[in-house]
Design a protein that fits this description.
By secondary structure, the chain is of the alpha/beta class. About 40% of the residues lie in helices and about 15% in strands. The chain has 12 helices and 15 strands. The strands form 4 sheets. Strands 1-9-8-5-4-2-3 form a 7-stranded mixed beta sheet, with helices on both faces. Helix 3 packs across helix 4. The mean pLDDT is about 95. It binds pyridoxal-5'-phosphate. The site of pyridoxal-5'-phosphate has 15 residues, from helix 3 and helix 4.
Length: about 375
């Protein structure tokens, strides 16, 4: 039997980036500066440029990037934050850690926060919901024009979760022009967890903003709340991106565009090639220039999912589920005001979604194997 086709293939990635990463490690080790120095600064500049924002702030994780963003925007204990029930748990965990109270609106047919429902909820709340935390899930970009006009109209502050959407953009409407995910909210956060499109050799994250004052607060919050050495203006945290991870990320960064193109090619092939009466391929939302972080398909009924996963496993294809438990239904949220139920579309994803491998190190042969494995499923 042919070897397993993995959901992520870090060994192949290492074959590509290993020599450059080792040079980066050598440079940092020999340079003797390991925390908040030139490597982080250089990486932050690169990142800000690629997101089309004025400031990027490297932090220890995507979770921290979200928490610090909310805190920098002035979230106070008990503030309500509107977010999505279908995401990595970290999205909501950041709200809880910052002292906020998460509220959820259902997703649209593509699995992303339904902005129409969000609009209605914000109107009903009459200004009582102070923050909105949408996620550019699966590498798709939410409608940024819509997001921007909603943000203007509702008065809440928006933090975009870009952990899965680095370089994703939206083509815009009516001469608005193409804009990047992360460039529209008051702040945005991304992650360099190893499985992300740009992954570190460990944890890392970043905050993005146009606003110099917010950037300054975020820089303080990541570093014990210091404004200068030993002067603590804020109750901050230790959430610094290591020089080492920054150097490693800078080594991989030049490959990100090609990796993203490869992901897009594989997604195109799946969209054209996978045809099965009991599978629905989740569409790329209109106007989104997606970066295809994940490739979700839905089986037509939840009971079919174990069989489909088993069939792919037998064909040597590893799969994932994003996500099997809705955030409001997580045990950790019990007693925290989260309302379980009432999210029928998100529920459908949690019961019927299966993620196919889409990392850039798949060979064409493997992509064809995956297409055939899907099409050959008895259902
Ligand atoms: C990965 C992820 C996070 C959390 O990032 P970490 O770096 O693992 O803390 C947050 N939101 C989404 C949508 C993610 O995929």
């Amino acid at each position: 039997m042919s070897p397993l086709i993995r959901l992520n293939d870090f060994k192949r990635q290492w074959q590509v980036i290993g020599p450059e990463v080792l040079r980066a490690v050598e440079r940092v080790g020999a340079g003797g500066k390991y925390v908040l120095s030139g490597e982080v600064e250089a990486f932050e500049l690169r990142l800000a440029e690629s997101f089309g924002v004025a400031h990027a702030i490297g932090v220890a994780s995507g979770l921290d990037a979200l928490e610090i963003s909310l805190r920098a925007l002035g979230l106070r204990a008990g503030d309500r934050v509107l977010t999505t029930p279908l995401s990595a748990f970290a999205t909501t965990l950041a709200v809880l850690r910052a002292g906020g109270v998460p509220e959820f609106v259902d997703v649209d047919e593509n699995g992303l926060m339904d902005l129409e429902l969000a609009e209605r909820r914000l109107a009903e709340a009459r200004g009582a919901i102070r923050f909105v935390l949408p996620v550019h899930l699966f590498g798709h970009c939410l409608d940024l024009g819509k997001l921007e006009s909603l943000a203007r109209a509702c008065g809440a502050r928006w933090v975009e979760d870009c952990a899965q959407s680095i370089l994703a953009s939206h083509e815009g409407r009516g001469g608005e022009g193409e804009r990047l995910a992360g460039s529209v909210g008051a702040m945005a956060a991304t992650s360099f967890y190893p499985t992300k499109n740009l992954g570190a050799l460990g944890d890392g994250g970043a905050i993005l903003t146009h606003d110099a004052e917010l950037a300054r607060t975020a820089r303080r919050l990541r570093d014990y709340g210091q404004s200068e050495k030993y002067r603590h203006e804020l109750v901050g945290m230790n959430s610094r991106l290591d020089e080492l991870q920054a150097a490693i990320l800078s080594a991989s960064f030049p490959r990100l565009r090609a990796w993203t193109d490869r992901r897009r090619k594989i997604a195109d092939r799946y969209r054209a090639g996978i045809v099965h009466a009991k599978l629905r391929i989740v569409a790329r939302p209109a106007g989104s220039r997606s970066v295809e972080h994940l490739f979700p398909v839905l089986v037509t009924q939840g009971e079919l999912r174990p069989g489909f996963i088993g069939h792919l496993t037998n064909c040597g294809v590893q799969t994932g589920i994003h996500y099997p438990i809705l955030i409001p239904e997580q045990p950790a949220l019990e007693g925290r005001g989260a309302v379980a139920g009432g999210f029928p579309r998100a529920k459908e994803f949690s019961e019927r979604e299966v993620s196919l491998p889409i990392h850039p190190f798949l060979t064409d042969t493997e992509v064809e194997q995956i297409v055939s494995a899907c099409n050959d499923w008895g259902g």
